[in-house]
Known about the structure:
The structure holds 2 protein chains of 2 kinds. By secondary structure, chain A is mostly helical. Chain A has helices spanning 2-18, 29-38, 73-76, 84-92, 94-97, 110-120. Chain B is globular, with a radius of gyration of 17 Å.
Amino acid sequence: MRGAKTLTALAVHSLLSATAHATDLHGDPLHGKAIYESRCMACHSLDRSRIGPAHRGVFGRHAARVADFDYSPALRSSSVIWNAHTLDRWLTNPEAFIPGQKMGFSVPDPRDRADVIAFLASPEAAN
Amino acid sequence: MGTQRFAHVTTRRGVLQGAAVLSAGAVALLAGQPATAAKMSKGGNSARDVSTLNTALALEHEGINAYTLGAQSNLLDKQVLTVAVKFQDDHKAHRDKLIQVIRMLGGTPVKEKSLAEYAKELDVARLKTQADVLDFAAGLEKGAVNAYLGIIPAFSDGQWAKLAGQLATDEREHFTVLTQALGRALPAPLGFGA
């Protein structure tokens, strides 16, 4: 019985953790830069489109606006503008946010997402 | 410079080519029945999996061309070049496997860009020494490990998640050798994908 209560508490905690949003957190752009360099830069860079589009100036920009990148039709037809809220939803689960897009990568941890978003919004990643 | 350490890498096993047990889908593919093979993919969302596998294929195309650019830089000594060619061969094996799977699932493999496009995208003009090239390669391999770990949860079919794990293992091996050649400390445990 006691074990069942503990399991229930753990399940509730897990649910709360899973639904946490990066927008509830104050992001650290320095840590976000480190995460960006170790994970995002496999496919992206700030200034050159590669597997994914270049990211400089992405914060505040309309989706699918990097001229030299071949976006999915799903992203091209979206009306999303990248801000803390939309980037959080995108990085949580890109396919759930914009079905038919091409990115298979996600950032599950809300703290990491907040930090990456803070880096993308920082002067270092701005135009 | 660590050339000796780099050159003393032993030939590794052919993870993707050797003793792998063929799935029912692969058997169907070999029998000339790609449609049947696609249906045999264990349920899931094949179109979504193809998209994610194509991301992996794009990474392998880039990796192959990055090693070509490194080899053409004339910055690598002979021993280092030998190992670089070996790593490039690994990436070619990855590419071939991914193309096979994508086609089996009824998808169209993403095309390779030109060498000039990769040179521009990867900004290889900044590479001036052998250490620069090794650092560049280590960065790409590290990124590939993290990318493959990162896409594992996206697959609807566990066999492709396993394939991504196999690819990550090979890239990690490349990264380790390059790190040793550069005389750097190995990363902390659980450092990848974190």
